[in-house]
Write a structure and sequence with these properties.
This protein has 20 helices and 23 strands. It is α/β, with parallel strands linked by helices. It has three domains: 230 residues, P-loop containing nucleotide triphosphate hydrolases (Rossmann fold, 3-Layer(aba) Sandwich), CATH 3.40.50; 222 residues, Rossmann fold (3-Layer(aba) Sandwich); 78 residues, no CATH class. The strands form five sheets. It has a seven-stranded mixed sheet with strand order 12-23-22-14-21-20-17, with helices on both faces. β20, α16 and β21 form a beta-alpha-beta unit. It is globular and about 65 Å long. The protein starts with 16 loop residues before the first strand and ends with a helix. The N terminus and C terminus are likely disordered. Bound molecules: adenosine-5'-triphosphate (ATP). InterPro entries: AAA+_ATPase, ABC_carbohydrate_import_ATPase, ABC_transporter-like_ATP-bd, ABC_transporter-like_CS, P-loop_NTPase.
Length: 572
């Protein structure tokens, strides 16, 4: 590890991208201060740093979304100045955002050509070009597949294809693995290797330090807005990288002694939810698993069959006859590829969508018909999947966000009145306690970095001492230090009797925090796994259906459903 110098560039090698002396100020914050970044051609360059360190700001500058106050950008040795992403794209910079920006109801071809029809038209030439790019980089994407029929990993490949179609030579990937299971991460890294071998460069932002070390050729570490060093992956451990980054040790989410009690906090009985629009949004209609056993290694006695899932008529059921109990002191993890009913389960539990049948009991009371507010007031905490849409009022100050969802509760309310002073004081406490990096509580939530927004939400929800916490991706986007803090808070509350439903794409988190672990597939809880023995790889296989012969092939439709697995499925 070398904390002082950049990787050497040989005399004849010009950097694909060279950022020098970049400074960017926002009111009260210097987001970037004299940053230097040199990305060699044909390499993956990782950018790491704690939440709020300034990574996204730097990438927004490179992508033309923001103008630096100071500093220069050179592409292939030539100094450039970008006023918009269009300028950056024209110079071969492409960005794959964390939140995919594809239109579900359009095909891959339509999505890819949208906005760049002038390049190859919208017909045969574009189709040819897409096939060519897909083959060249091993993306395995077919132009005529509807995006809504694609899984997360394929959508990401479409995003990558889209920027390649526009001629990107340097791709910025913002936390691309946050939504992928281990096998998909491996496939993505294979794709990145293909890109490299063709001379393209990739800037890779991630908080997962193990992955960074396995995929990156060079690593630049940013701390508090400035470059503090570089690391050579082959000579660096995740722990050393974490130390360089946040000055703290890499945490591991380990379940200590069990705190699970006999007291049922939440009991869900035969919960079924139908898709709003009639057609199920699940891709693999007709590919119903019959049974599944997860964690099949001989040493996994806890892995057994949970349900027999044989429901060929369930095309419209996005949540299908789901039953479980979570006890005081128990974290129940649900593993699954996104889009298999998790959202509907969360919606039904928090009350933003009512169940079509079945019942939810909370501390012995039937709350199935209760409004969200009543559920929250009686002790249901909620860390939502999408912090921008459901967790925050982005344009409002932090203290108003403190009130969000807890309008009638202390310290936000005094009798019938809002207690603004109380809310403000408590926001300061949360900022302090949860290490939310901000110049103050009057700035908007939008001006916080992603990880700091997440910390604010977690702080708010934990502050009401919930009895039941619905935690969807509670540490998504937060750095290793903050992740450890959040895990500690959840564990601490669990010891006090909190019941948690944990949904996460981070399989280490799921395995490490959960007392019980279930797999959701096609709207059903199909299997039970033992967190003490299952590996992330086994869990990843179970989530994609590969753990069982019945789940392995999406085109093994039960009788009467032969037509359900069409050509789109093959492209998956
Ligand atoms: N539009 C803005 N207005 C005000 N402050 C901003 C704005 N954008 C970013 N900041 C601030 O700049 C700093 C750097 O934020 P940035 O989003 O670049 O961090 P990051 O390293 O990407 O963090 P994370 O890992 O949490 O995504 C933070 O303190 C953030 O609050």
């Amino acid at each position: 590890m070398d904390a002082s110098s950049s990787p050497p560039l040989t005399a004849e090698t010009t950097a694909a991208v060279e950022l020098a002396g970049i400074t960017k100020r926002f009111p009260g914050v210097v987001a970037n201060h004299d940053i230097h970044l040199s990305v060699r051609k044909g390499t993956v360059h990782a950018l790491v740093g704690e939440n709020g360190a300034g990574k996204s700001t730097l990438m927004k500058i490179l992508y033309g979304m923001q103008k630096p106050d100071e500093g220069t950008i050179a592409i292939d040795g030539e100094q450039v100045s970008f006023s918009s992403p269009a300028d950056a794209i024209a110079r071969g910079i492409g960005m794959v955002h964390q939140h995919f920006m594809l239109a579900d109801n359009l095909t891959v071809l339509e999505n890819v050509v949208l906005g760049s029809e002038k390049l190859y038209g919208i017909g045969g030439n574009a189709r040819k070009k897409i096939a060519e790019i897909s083959d060249r980089y091993g993306l395995g994407i077919r132009p005529d597949v509807l995006v809504e029929d694609l899984g997360v990993a394929d959508r990401q490949r479409v995003e990558i294809l889209k920027v390649l179609f526009r001629g990107a030579k340097t791709l910025i990937l913002d936390e691309p693995t946050a939504v992928l299971v281990p096998q998909e991460v491996d496939a993505l890294f294979d794709n990145l290797r293909e890109l490299k071998s063709e001379g393209l460069s990739v800037i890779f932002i991630s908080h997962k330090l193990g992955e960074v070390l396995s995929v990156a050729d060079d690593i630049t570490v940013i701390r508090r807005g400035t470059t503090v060093g570089t690391a050579i992956p082959s000579e660096t451990t995740p722990r050393q990288l974490a130390e360089l980054m946040v000055g703290s040790e890499l945490p591991t989410p380990e379940t200590a002694e069990s705190t699970v009690t006999d007291k049922a906090v939440v009991t869900v009985k035969n919960l079924t939810v139908y898709a709003g629009g009639g057609i199920a949004s699940l891709g693999e209609v007709g590919a119903q698993p019959e049974t599944a056993t997860v964690g099949s290694s001989g040493a996994a006695p806890g892995a057994d069959v949970l349900t027999e899932a044989t429901t060929p008529g369930a095309a419209k059921r996005v949540l299908d006859d789901v039953s479980f109990t979570i006890h005081a002191g128990e974290v129940m993890g649900i593993a699954g590829v996104e889009g298999n009913g998790q959202t509907e389960l969360i919606d039904a539990l928090i009350g933003t969508k009512h169940a079509d049948s079945g019942a939810i009991e909370f501390l012995g009371e039937d709350i199935t018909g209760w409004q969200t507010r009543k559920r929250r007031e009686s002790g249901v905490g909620y860390i939502p999947e999408d912090r921008h849409r459901q967790g925050l009022l982005l344009e409002s100050p932090l203290w108003e966000n403190r009130i969000l969802g807890h309008v009638t509760e202390k310290p936000n309310a005094k009798g019938f009145w809002l207690d603004i002073k109380g809310a403000q004081a408590d926001t300061r406490r949360i900022v302090e306690e949860f290490d939310v990096r901000t110049p103050g509580i009057d700035v908007t939530a939008a001006s916080l970095s992603g990880g700091n927004q997440q910390k604010l939400i977690v702080g708010r929800e934990m502050s009401h001492n919930p009895k039941f916490l619905i935690a969807a991706h509670p540490t998504r986007g937060v750095d290793v230090g903050a992740q450890a803090q959040i895990w500690d808070r959840i564990r601490e509350a669990r010891r006090e009797g909190l019941a948690v439903l944990l949904i996460s794409a981070d399989l280490d988190e799921l395995i490490g925090l959960s007392d019980t672990l279930r797999v959701i597939y096609d709207g059903k809880l199909v299997a039970d796994a033992d967190p003490a023995t299952i590996t992330p790889e086994e869990l990843g296989s179970a989530m994609t259906g590969a753990a069982s012969g019945h789940l392995e092939h999406v085109d093994t439709a039960p009788e009467g459903h032969e037509g359900a697995a069409g050509p789109e499925d093959e492209a998956r």
